[in-house]
Amino acid sequence: MLTVGILGGMGPMATVDLFAKIVECTPAACDQDHIKIIVYNNPQIPSRIEAILNGSRSPAGALIDSARFLENAGANLLVMPCNTAHYWYQDIQAAITIKLINMIENTANAVASRENSGDIVLFASAGTVQTALYQKAFLAKNISLLIPKPDEQQIISLAITAAKAGQLENNPYLGQLDEIMFAYQQAGANSFIGGCTEIPLLFKYSSRECCRIDPTRLLAQEVVRQALL
Which family does this protein fall into (predicted)? Predict the structure, then answer.
Protein backbone atom coordinates (compact mmCIF):
# COMPACT_ATOMS: atom_id res chain seq x y z
CA MET A 1 0.00 0.00 0.00
CA LEU A 2 1.36 3.41 -1.00
CA THR A 3 1.31 6.50 1.19
CA VAL A 4 -0.58 9.29 -0.58
CA GLY A 5 0.34 12.95 -0.27
CA ILE A 6 -2.30 15.60 -0.92
CA LEU A 7 -0.84 18.92 -2.08
CA GLY A 8 -3.71 21.03 -0.85
CA GLY A 9 -4.88 24.44 0.24
CA MET A 10 -6.19 25.51 -3.17
CA GLY A 11 -8.71 25.88 -1.60
CA PRO A 12 -8.97 24.23 1.80
CA MET A 13 -12.53 22.95 1.35
CA ALA A 14 -11.55 21.34 -1.95
CA THR A 15 -8.71 19.62 -0.11
CA VAL A 16 -11.12 18.28 2.50
CA ASP A 17 -13.43 17.16 -0.31
CA LEU A 18 -10.71 15.07 -1.96
CA PHE A 19 -9.64 13.56 1.37
CA ALA A 20 -13.23 12.60 2.15
CA LYS A 21 -13.80 11.11 -1.29
CA ILE A 22 -10.64 8.99 -1.07
CA VAL A 23 -11.94 7.59 2.23
CA GLU A 24 -15.40 7.03 0.71
CA CYS A 25 -13.96 5.25 -2.33
CA THR A 26 -11.68 2.94 -0.35
CA PRO A 27 -13.00 -0.63 0.01
CA ALA A 28 -12.32 -0.94 3.74
CA ALA A 29 -13.83 -3.13 6.42
CA CYS A 30 -11.83 -1.57 9.25
CA ASP A 31 -9.45 1.32 9.99
CA GLN A 32 -6.42 -0.71 8.97
CA ASP A 33 -7.78 -1.23 5.45
CA HIS A 34 -7.63 2.50 4.70
CA ILE A 35 -4.85 4.28 2.84
CA LYS A 36 -2.19 6.26 4.67
CA ILE A 37 -2.60 9.90 3.63
CA ILE A 38 -0.46 12.95 4.38
CA VAL A 39 -2.35 16.21 3.85
CA TYR A 40 -0.40 19.43 3.38
CA ASN A 41 -2.98 22.19 3.39
CA ASN A 42 -0.95 25.19 2.19
CA PRO A 43 -3.35 28.07 1.44
CA GLN A 44 -0.40 30.49 1.17
CA ILE A 45 0.40 29.31 -2.37
CA PRO A 46 0.04 32.39 -4.62
CA SER A 47 -3.10 32.66 -6.75
CA ARG A 48 -2.89 30.48 -9.81
CA ILE A 49 -5.56 32.47 -11.60
CA GLU A 50 -3.89 35.83 -10.97
CA ALA A 51 -0.56 34.47 -12.20
CA ILE A 52 -2.12 33.26 -15.46
CA LEU A 53 -4.48 36.14 -16.17
CA ASN A 54 -2.52 39.10 -14.82
CA GLY A 55 1.11 37.95 -14.70
CA SER A 56 1.29 38.21 -10.90
CA ARG A 57 3.67 36.14 -8.75
CA SER A 58 4.03 32.58 -10.02
CA PRO A 59 2.98 29.81 -7.64
CA ALA A 60 5.49 27.40 -9.20
CA GLY A 61 8.07 27.72 -6.41
CA ALA A 62 5.50 27.19 -3.66
CA LEU A 63 3.96 24.25 -5.50
CA ILE A 64 7.36 22.59 -5.89
CA ASP A 65 8.26 23.27 -2.25
CA SER A 66 4.95 21.72 -1.16
CA ALA A 67 5.49 18.65 -3.33
CA ARG A 68 9.00 18.17 -1.95
CA PHE A 69 7.66 18.63 1.60
CA LEU A 70 5.23 15.77 1.06
CA GLU A 71 7.85 13.57 -0.57
CA ASN A 72 10.25 14.17 2.31
CA ALA A 73 7.44 13.43 4.77
CA GLY A 74 7.11 9.94 3.33
CA ALA A 75 4.54 10.20 0.54
CA ASN A 76 5.22 8.01 -2.48
CA LEU A 77 2.24 9.11 -4.58
CA LEU A 78 1.00 12.70 -4.93
CA VAL A 79 -2.28 14.32 -5.89
CA MET A 80 -3.14 18.00 -6.21
CA PRO A 81 -6.80 19.02 -5.87
CA CYS A 82 -6.55 22.19 -7.95
CA ASN A 83 -7.19 22.07 -11.67
CA THR A 84 -5.60 25.43 -12.49
CA ALA A 85 -2.37 24.48 -10.69
CA HIS A 86 -1.90 21.74 -13.28
CA TYR A 87 -0.61 24.47 -15.59
CA TRP A 88 2.65 23.90 -13.65
CA TYR A 89 2.29 20.11 -13.60
CA GLN A 90 5.46 19.41 -15.59
CA ASP A 91 7.53 21.73 -13.36
CA ILE A 92 6.31 19.99 -10.22
CA GLN A 93 6.75 16.47 -11.59
CA ALA A 94 10.30 17.28 -12.75
CA ALA A 95 11.23 18.47 -9.25
CA ILE A 96 10.28 15.27 -7.40
CA THR A 97 11.05 11.57 -7.75
CA ILE A 98 7.54 10.26 -6.97
CA LYS A 99 4.49 10.26 -9.23
CA LEU A 100 2.04 13.14 -9.31
CA ILE A 101 -1.27 11.97 -10.75
CA ASN A 102 -2.52 14.42 -13.38
CA MET A 103 -6.07 15.27 -12.36
CA ILE A 104 -7.06 16.63 -15.77
CA GLU A 105 -5.65 13.75 -17.81
CA ASN A 106 -7.31 11.35 -15.38
CA THR A 107 -10.66 13.03 -16.04
CA ALA A 108 -10.17 12.84 -19.81
CA ASN A 109 -9.29 9.14 -19.55
CA ALA A 110 -12.37 8.43 -17.44
CA VAL A 111 -14.73 10.29 -19.76
CA ALA A 112 -13.21 8.68 -22.86
CA SER A 113 -13.92 5.23 -21.40
CA ARG A 114 -17.63 5.94 -21.18
CA GLU A 115 -20.30 5.77 -23.84
CA ASN A 116 -20.82 8.98 -25.78
CA SER A 117 -23.20 11.15 -23.76
CA GLY A 118 -23.45 14.12 -26.12
CA ASP A 119 -21.99 17.58 -25.71
CA ILE A 120 -19.94 18.29 -22.59
CA VAL A 121 -19.66 21.77 -21.04
CA LEU A 122 -16.63 22.86 -19.03
CA PHE A 123 -17.24 24.75 -15.80
CA ALA A 124 -13.78 25.89 -14.65
CA SER A 125 -11.78 28.90 -13.53
CA ALA A 126 -10.91 31.53 -16.10
CA GLY A 127 -7.27 30.51 -15.74
CA THR A 128 -8.00 26.87 -16.53
CA VAL A 129 -10.10 27.87 -19.53
CA GLN A 130 -7.51 30.33 -20.88
CA THR A 131 -4.66 27.82 -20.65
CA ALA A 132 -6.84 25.21 -22.41
CA LEU A 133 -5.80 22.50 -19.94
CA TYR A 134 -9.03 20.55 -20.34
CA GLN A 135 -9.46 21.36 -24.03
CA LYS A 136 -6.04 19.88 -24.88
CA ALA A 137 -6.47 16.79 -22.71
CA PHE A 138 -9.89 16.05 -24.20
CA LEU A 139 -8.81 16.81 -27.76
CA ALA A 140 -6.12 14.13 -27.33
CA LYS A 141 -9.03 11.74 -26.74
CA ASN A 142 -10.98 13.12 -29.73
CA ILE A 143 -13.54 14.70 -27.41
CA SER A 144 -14.54 18.32 -27.84
CA LEU A 145 -15.72 20.54 -25.02
CA LEU A 146 -18.12 23.45 -25.01
CA ILE A 147 -16.63 26.55 -23.37
CA PRO A 148 -19.00 29.03 -21.70
CA LYS A 149 -19.37 32.46 -23.27
CA PRO A 150 -17.59 35.38 -21.53
CA ASP A 151 -20.68 36.52 -19.62
CA GLU A 152 -21.34 32.96 -18.47
CA GLN A 153 -17.70 32.53 -17.47
CA GLN A 154 -17.95 35.63 -15.33
CA ILE A 155 -20.81 34.04 -13.35
CA ILE A 156 -18.86 30.79 -12.99
CA SER A 157 -15.81 32.69 -11.75
CA LEU A 158 -17.88 34.66 -9.25
CA ALA A 159 -19.46 31.43 -8.00
CA ILE A 160 -15.98 29.92 -7.51
CA THR A 161 -14.80 32.98 -5.58
CA ALA A 162 -17.88 32.86 -3.34
CA ALA A 163 -17.33 29.12 -2.72
CA LYS A 164 -13.74 29.83 -1.67
CA ALA A 165 -15.20 32.27 0.85
CA GLY A 166 -17.31 29.48 2.34
CA GLN A 167 -20.55 30.16 0.49
CA LEU A 168 -21.82 26.80 -0.74
CA GLU A 169 -25.52 26.19 -0.11
CA ASN A 170 -25.95 29.97 0.18
CA ASN A 171 -23.80 30.76 -2.86
CA PRO A 172 -25.43 33.84 -4.44
CA TYR A 173 -24.70 32.58 -7.96
CA LEU A 174 -26.33 29.13 -7.71
CA GLY A 175 -29.46 30.29 -9.49
CA GLN A 176 -27.49 31.77 -12.37
CA LEU A 177 -25.36 28.62 -12.64
CA ASP A 178 -28.57 26.61 -12.96
CA GLU A 179 -29.78 28.99 -15.67
CA ILE A 180 -26.55 28.53 -17.60
CA MET A 181 -26.85 24.75 -17.30
CA PHE A 182 -30.48 24.86 -18.43
CA ALA A 183 -29.57 26.92 -21.51
CA TYR A 184 -26.93 24.39 -22.54
CA GLN A 185 -29.34 21.53 -21.91
CA GLN A 186 -31.86 23.21 -24.20
CA ALA A 187 -29.12 23.36 -26.84
CA GLY A 188 -28.45 19.62 -26.51
CA ALA A 189 -25.74 19.35 -23.85
CA ASN A 190 -26.36 17.29 -20.75
CA SER A 191 -22.90 16.77 -19.19
CA PHE A 192 -21.03 19.35 -17.14
CA ILE A 193 -17.46 19.01 -15.89
CA GLY A 194 -16.66 20.56 -12.51
CA GLY A 195 -13.25 21.66 -13.79
CA CYS A 196 -12.50 23.75 -10.73
CA THR A 197 -12.38 21.89 -7.41
CA GLU A 198 -14.91 24.32 -5.94
CA ILE A 199 -17.53 23.48 -8.59
CA PRO A 200 -18.22 19.91 -7.35
CA LEU A 201 -18.82 21.44 -3.93
CA LEU A 202 -21.63 23.46 -5.54
CA PHE A 203 -23.02 20.69 -7.75
CA LYS A 204 -24.85 19.09 -4.82
CA TYR A 205 -26.89 22.28 -4.40
CA SER A 206 -27.89 22.53 -8.07
CA SER A 207 -31.52 21.86 -8.94
CA ARG A 208 -30.76 20.77 -12.52
CA GLU A 209 -31.12 17.14 -13.58
CA CYS A 210 -28.01 16.42 -15.62
CA CYS A 211 -24.78 14.43 -15.75
CA ARG A 212 -22.25 16.06 -13.45
CA ILE A 213 -18.66 14.97 -14.05
CA ASP A 214 -16.70 15.33 -10.82
CA PRO A 215 -12.90 15.32 -11.42
CA THR A 216 -12.33 15.23 -7.65
CA ARG A 217 -14.20 11.95 -7.24
CA LEU A 218 -12.55 10.53 -10.36
CA LEU A 219 -9.18 11.47 -8.87
CA ALA A 220 -10.10 9.84 -5.57
CA GLN A 221 -11.02 6.63 -7.40
CA GLU A 222 -7.68 6.64 -9.25
CA VAL A 223 -5.79 7.31 -6.02
CA VAL A 224 -7.41 4.28 -4.43
CA ARG A 225 -6.64 2.14 -7.48
CA GLN A 226 -2.98 3.08 -7.58
CA ALA A 227 -2.39 3.15 -3.83
CA LEU A 228 -3.80 -0.35 -3.36
CA LEU A 229 -1.99 -1.99 -6.29
Answer: Belongs to the aspartate/glutamate racemases family.
